[in-house]
Write a structure and sequence with these properties.
Elements: H1 3-7, E1 15-21, H2 23-39, E2 42-44, E3 55-57, E4 61-65, E5 86-93, H3 98-117, E6 124-129, H4 131-135, H5 139-149, E7 157-160, H6 165-198, H7 208-225, H8 228-249, H9 272-275, H10 289-314, H11 323-352, H12 358-377, H13 389-412, H14 415-427, H15 431-434, H16 437-447, H17 449-469, H18 473-489, H19 493-509, H20 514-528, H21 536-549, H22 553-569, E8 575-579, E9 588-591, E10 598-601, E11 606-615, E12 624-632, E13 649-655, E14 660-667, E15 695-699, E16 710-719, E17 724-735, E18 739-744, H23 749-753, E19 760-763, E20 769-772, E21 780-782, E22 785-793, E23 807-810, E24 817-821, E25 826-828, E26 830-831, E27 843-852, E28 858-859, E29 869-878, E30 881-891, E31 894-902, E32 905-914, E33 920-931, E34 942-943, E35 955-962, E36 974-986, H24 996-999, E37 1003-1011, E38 1018-1026, E39 1034-1035, E40 1040-1048, E41 1055-1061, E42 1067-1069, E43 1073-1077, E44 1083-1092, E45 1096-1099, E46 1102-1108, E47 1127-1131, E48 1133-1135, E49 1141-1145, H25 1157-1176
Parallel strand pairs: 1-4, 1-5, 5-6, 6-7, 8-18, 10-19, 21-30, 28-31, 38-48, 39-49
Antiparallel strand pairs: 2-3, 9-11, 11-16, 12-15, 12-17, 13-14, 17-18, 17-19, 20-22, 22-27, 23-26, 23-29, 24-25, 24-27, 29-30, 31-32, 32-35, 33-36, 34-35, 36-37, 38-40, 40-44, 41-43, 41-46, 42-44, 45-49, 46-47
Helix pairs in contact: 6-7, 7-8, 8-10, 8-11, 10-11, 11-12, 11-13, 12-13, 12-14, 12-16, 13-17, 13-18, 14-16, 16-17, 17-18, 18-19, 19-20, 20-21, 21-22
Domain TRAPPC10/Trs130 N-terminal: 14-302
Protein name: Trafficking protein particle complex subunit 10
Pfam families: TRAPPC10_1st (PF23036)
Length: 1177
């Protein structure tokens, strides 16, 4: 059935045009005018009405003989039927001469004119066919005579003649103008009349039936004109007015006179197909709400279908691109009208307190919903109308509820009266409508019990499918429950079980409390136990639920025993459950807290993991098998994305430039994946035999016997075989060889909360490796034998050659590192320790003794006297591979070399410092200083301290040589060689962890040093005296006099600058430089005021001699200060008091009877001068 067949229910009517006069002219004009008006539209601008655009109307005309009753007299009050009046009146004449007009047509047209013109507002035209008059050359005189007879209305006299399109076009436009004028006057009058009539709607005497009839007549007029949107608007106004009336009278004690107060709905069942053919409400004094609303909605549906048909025909092509969307839109309109109608009837009957016949209401409801869905099916399926899902689901729910109530009448045999009442409504329909599916189905439902059961199930199943499609899950479950109860009451248990299972399973999945469904669940189990093989999976599920959550303990034990017995009886059947984190009432529970997130192994390794299995059943499980499957991570076998779980993942980013946070969903989750609840026997094994290399299966090697209630920690083992990255895929628990419970990785709680905790097993081929253990203390000592420990690993392959050995050497060929070779018991540049054979993944430690000789340690800066650090690379070769390790060395000693002058002699002092307690005692054997000369024989320097004593940790040691005489005062640089031989021994309780035979050897420290010795120009001597009167020793924060005496070794008279400097922590010196004039005797003396800042033995301030550019005499007293420009070159000098210390005491308060400071200072200066004079003499 297509929409065009539905449009035949309400045929389109035509406007009346009255005609009188010549039949020949009538036929000619009818053939010319009707096609024009049928194919063209006119623009209707309503007078006095504001419209955003004019109405485009089409005049569907029908010519009828003139009658005075067809003239519309709008001056008479009341309603006027437009289909009984003519909107335009025409008179046709075709005389050939004036005499023929006067004798044959004048009297008749005058009579017609008198009848038409007496009605104010009537539109008329006189059509004169001048074809014959033209032939007889009488056209002009005849036309002039006719117009003279109608002198006041010459514009209404129109000349036409056959073959003239111009005359016909003028007539068409003129008729169109008069039709629009007549139509506007009629519509304005009727609308004003209806508006006045409508104002009295609150009165109980208001005749809504008559008002509805008039409004429907106006709607038919608009439908004839082709303005279907206005037709639909008129019916919408009727619906709104009816709602206002009911709302008003629902609050009043009286009821409107037109509303039927009886329980009877009507003479017959109000069917939409029958009411769509009615042009007016039932002609009775009162009607029911169901009748009047069904009438309105029937016409709303038909008009909507006509609008759809018109829009489709006007679009280009037979099937426009947007035709599907247009069908869905108009189907939604029909659903909205239908749902509004039935909802309004239910609400208004309740509000008005109407008690209708329950059976008739249910019968009408089923028929109405079926017919409404049938009209929707003319356009598209209801499931396709997404934006009208509420209306479709509401109608389906009401239909199922009504047919359920109707079943009570069918069972009790009271359906015959309903069937007779229904047939009365069918009798009003046309033959095609009476044979529609809706009518046939309702007739069968009321006449046959078996057919009723069939359609009861059919309606419920279709409604359940529709509700599920639109997401009305709870309502669909309710319909399923109602259908199941009906089938159970009809002794159709097999048919009811699927619906019972869906209803109970849905509630369980939603997590409904078992207390609410326990009785129903027990009832379902009783029915399922009659066919255990057919409903094995469901029985197992329900047994598990009742075993865990039954209220009584005895019931829990009983259902658990039934579960075990059921599994034993069906050991040939395989059932698989995919358990998710949202699955309620789980018998078994998995926890992966004990599984490490990263597992590494090599081929052949035995892997072990611990997994916790929780048994929620009241009895222990004996026949079980737990398997944990790690599958190879590859795109071909991965069924889930490894980076996301079932929950969505979000990412937040902050744009510093815009200052905006942006959130995005990077993983939508896997909730759409449906679990497989059962598989065949061949699909149950997780790791089949044809793919043993694609997964690692962990199983329990030594079974513990049974899974007790509560937590059970199981140790699973597997053997790694192939190289690859394996990720946890699922955990399987097999019970009695029948039930397979599968936990996917994303359904394990710990992993679901944090996908990064998904365990990954890395199986890789591990090569043989050599590693260096950390050296004790973080560094090795150079200058003494040290121990290095290497860790060797065979990797994933065994090493069977017993003759394998390491080759250990230094990466730097010029390195001064030696290795202890055990085979020769010698120190060599390399060593070859034997390794032997190694098993798979076997580790072995190898010890190598190493000695780095001391070289080039001398520094001339006191700040750099700390132990220097160097790094060397140790190269280890094994099995054709090479490893390089960086070892940090710190010298056993630090050396500082200084030269000094003693009168005419030059000394070289080598100071060896040991700042750390390394546990070794150095035993000096020999100290030699040689001049590196090629042409001359080497002369060893004289060693002043010939007795060499042991050097202990945290001490300093000095060796002093006197340079050879011939080189003492040379200005050129001379290379010297220092050779210091020594041995070592362990200090006290120090354990060197090195055999004595290894470290007990002679060590040699060699150094090449370049010396430049200058001749001393001056000999200096300093003395510190207290400035306090009568004091001998210096005291802290008390001024002291530093007396500097100078003796020239060159007998040169000159002026020099004496500089004094000291550490600010020890001494405070106000004036650090002074000029000193060297006399002819070569002597000179000056003093500085210094203040000690610390108690104890303080070193003397350092003294330096510079040349002076200012030639000052002994009598020159004009120079008050020394400028920087006066400083010259530094002069070599020998300081006798170098390294001398002075004892500084604490502060002292002087007594009152002491002498003055100035006199005491003069006395002490004289005594110091006397002593220095004796010293130089």
């Amino acid at each position: 059935m297509d929409p065009s067949s539905a449009l035949d229910i309400a045929p389109v009517e035509r406007l009346l045009i009255s005609c009188r006069g010549s039949e020949d002219v009538l036929k000619y004009c009818e053939s010319e005018l009707l096609p024009f008006f049928d194919q063209n539209i006119a623009s209707w601008k309503r007078q006095g009405r504001q419209f955003p655009f004019p109405l485009h109307v089409k005049f569907m005309l029908r010519f009828v003989p003139y009658s005075p009753d067809l003239v519309i007299d709008l001056s008479k009050n009341g309603h006027h039927r437009w289909d009984q009046h003519a909107f335009l009146h025409l008179f046709f004449m075709k005389p050939s001469s004036v005499d023929e007009y006067r004798l044959g047509s004048r009297h008749e047209v005058s009579e017609w004119f008198a009848s038409v013109s007496q009605v104010n507002g009537a539109q008329w035209l006189i059509l004169f066919d001048s074809t014959k008059a033209r032939e007889k050359k009488n056209r002009g005189t005849l036309l002039e005579r006719i117009k003279s007879d109608f002198a006041k209305h010459t514009s209404r006299v129109v000349e036409i003649h056959e073959g003239s399109s111009q005359c016909m076009n003028g007539l068409q436009l003129l008729m169109q103008s008069y039709l629009l004028s007549s139509l506007d006057a009629f519509v304005s009058y009727e609308e004003s009349y209806l508006s006045v009539l409508k104002e009295d709607y609150k009165s109980s005497d208001f005749n809504f039936i008559a008002y509805c009839e008039y409004q429907m007549e106006m709607s038919r007029l608009y439908s004839t004109l082709g303005v279907l949107e206005h037709v639909l608007a008129k019916y919408d106004e009727l619906d709104a007015l009816l709602s206002l009336i009911v709302d008003h009278f629902s609050k009043e004690s009286t009821k409107p006179s037109w509303l039927c107060g009886e329980s009877h709905i009507g003479d017959g069942c109000p069917l939409l197909t029958a009411l769509a053919q009615c042009n007016a409400p039932p002609q009775r004094r009162s009607v029911s709400l169901i009748e009047i609303r069904s009438l309105i909605v029937a016409h709303q549906i038909i008009v909507s279908l006509r609008i759809f048909d018109e829009r489709v025909r006007h679009l280009s092509g037979g099937s426009p691109p947007n035709a599907i969307q247009m069908k869905c839109d108009f189907a939604a309109i029909i659903l909205r009208y239908s749902n509004h109608c039935i909802t309004s009837i239910c609400e208004e009957c309740s509000a008005m307190g109407l008690k209708l016949d329950h059976g008739e209401v249910q019968c009408w409801t089923v028929a109405f919903c079926v017919e409404a869905m049938q009209f929707v099916s003319l356009l598209t399926q209801a499931a396709h109308v997404e934006h009208a899902s509420y209306f479709a689901c509401s109608l389906s729910t009401r239909k199922c509820a009504a047919i359920t109530e109707l079943g009570k009448y069918v069972e009790s045999g009271e359906s015959k009266a309903l069937l007779a009442w229904f047939e009365k409504g069918v009798a009003l329909c046309a033959r095609s409508a009476a044979e529609s599916n809706a009518v046939v189905e309702i007739r069968l439902i009321l006449s046959d019990q078996q057919q009723f059961t069939h359609y009861m199930q059919k309606y419920h199943e279709s409604s359940i499918a529709l509700l599920k499609h639109f997401g009305w899950k709870r309502q669909s479950k309710l319909l399923g429950w109602q259908l199941a109860n009906f089938l159970l009451s009809s002794d159709r248990v097999e048919g009811a079980l699927p619906y019972l299972l869906k209803f109970v399973s849905g509630l369980i999945r939603e997590g409904v409390s078992l207390l609410l469904v326990e009785r129903t669940l027990v009832l379902v189990v009783q029915h399922l136990e009659a066919s255990p093989n057919l409903y094995l999976k469901e029985l197992v599920d329900f047994y598990v639920i009742l075993s865990i959550h039954s209220a009584e303990k005895n019931d829990r034990l009983a259902y658990c025993k039934r579960l075990f017995a059921l599994l034993e009886r069906n050991n040939s059947t395989k059932i698989r459950h995919s358990v998710r984190s949202s699955t309620p009432y789980r018998a078994l529970y998995i926890s992966a807290k004990s599984i490490p997130s990263r597992i590494t192994a090599t081929p052949g390794d035995v892997l072990r993991i611990a997994i916790t299995v929780t048994n929620n059943l009241p009895l222990s499980l004996e026949n079980y098998l737990v398997r944990c499957v790690f599958r190879l991570a590859s795109s071909s076998c991965s069924r889930q994305k490894p980076t996301g779980g079932r929950s969505p993942l979000f990412e937040c980013s902050y744009n510093h430039a815009d200052g905006v946070n942006r959130f995005g969903c990077i993983w939508k989750g896997e909730y759409g994946v449906l679990p497989r609840d059962s598989v065949s026997e061949t699909d149950v094994p997780i790791c089949s035999g044809d793919e043993p290399q694609k997964s690692i299966v962990f199983e329990e090697r030594e079974k513990r016997g049974e899974l007790r209630g509560g937590n059970n920690v199981l140790t699973l083992e597997a053997k790694a075989s192939d190289v690859g990255v394996y990720m946890l895929e699922n955990v399987d628990i097999e019970v009695a060889g029948v039930l397979y419970v599968t936990f996917a990785w994303m359904d394990i709680p710990e992993i679901e909360r944090d996908n990064s905790r998904r365990p990954i097993c890395f199986v890789y081929r591990k090569a043989a490796t050599v590693s260096l253990r950390a050296v004790k203390g973080g560094y090795a000592l150079s200058g003494v034998a040290q121990r290095l420990d290497f860790e060797l690993s065979s990797g994933s392959e065994p090493i069977g050659d017993a003759s394998t050995s390491l080759r250990v050497t230094s990466s730097n060929k010029a390195s001064n590192i030696e290795f202890w070779d055990e085979s020769t018991s010698k120190w060599l540049k390399w060593c070859h320790p034997q390794v032997g054979s190694l098993a798979v993944n076997e580790h072995r430690s190898m010890t190598v003794y190493i000695c780095k000789a001391l070289r080039n340690l001398t520094t001339y800066d006191e700040a750099d006297s700390d132990v220097a650090t160097t790094s060397d690379q140790i190269c280890v070769e094994w099995l054709g591979k090479e490893w390089t390790f960086v070892v940090e060395f710190r010298s056993l000693i630090s050396v500082r070399a200084t030269t000094s002058l003693l009168e005419d002699k030059a000394l070289l002092e080598m100071q060896m410092s040991r700042v750390r307690d390394d546990g070794w005692v150095i035993l000096p054997q020999e100290a030699v200083l040689l001049e590196s000369s090629i042409d001359e024989p080497q002369i060893p320097a004289k060693l002043l301290n010939t007795k060499l004593t042991p050097i202990v940790p945290k001490s300093s040691y000095r060796i002093v040589w006197v340079l050879p005489p011939r080189r003492q005062h040379s200005e050129e640089t001379v290379e010297h060689e220092i050779r210091f031989a020594y041995r070592v021994r362990a200090n006290g309780h120090f354990d060197p962890d090195i055999p004595e035979g290894v470290y007990d050897r002679e060590y040699v420290y060699e150094e090449d040093i370049a010396l430049t010795v200058q001749r001393a120009c001056y000999e200096l001597c300093a003395q510190l005296l207290s400035s306090q009167p009568g004091a001998v020793l210096c005291r802290v924060d008390s001024a002291c006099d530093l007396i500097v005496s100078l003796r020239s070794l060159t007998n040169k008279v000159e002026t020099v600058v004496i500089g004094v400097d000291a550490d600010s922590r020890f001494w405070a010196i106000n004036e650090k430089h002074k000029l000193l004039y060297v006399k002819e005797s070569g002597l000179g003396q000056t003093s500085f005021s210094v203040v000690p800042k610390m108690v104890g033995f303080l070193p003397y301030p350092s003294i330096t001699v510079y040349c002076c550019h200012h030639l000052r005499t002994s009598s020159d007293k004009s120079l008050g200060h020394i400028e920087q420009s006066m400083f010259g070159a530094h002069l070599a000098s020998f300081i006798r008091t170098n390294g001398k210390q002075v004892h500084v005491l604490g502060a002292f308060n002087p007594s009152a009877d002491q002498k003055s400071t100035s006199s005491d200072k003069s006395r002490r200066l004289k005594e110091a001068k006397s002593r220095l004079t004796k010293l130089f003499d």
